[in-house]
Predict the 3D structure of the following.
Amino acid sequence: TLRSAQVYFFDDNGGVRVPASWTLQYWNGSSYVDVPSASGYPVALNAYNTVTFGQVSTTRLRVTLQSGAGSVGLLEVKAFS
């Protein structure tokens, strides 16, 4: 059972950049769906980007990324109950 997550992005000032945007999805038993009531999806550089959301119970999470100027630099994802 989860209520928030953090995603860490980096940018090497070359071909690896932060994403243009991202969303967090969870497995509802038959498909991936967006987490409910997401607080927003920040794209801060070299930092953890936190999203809070309505409580979900799941066995899987997925970060969907929309690349911008280059490849996306994603280092870590943390999920919290």
Q: What stands out?
A: The first strand starts at residue 2 and ends at 10. The mean pLDDT is 95. Strands lie at 2-10, 16-17, 21-27, 32-34, 47-56, 61-66, 71-80.
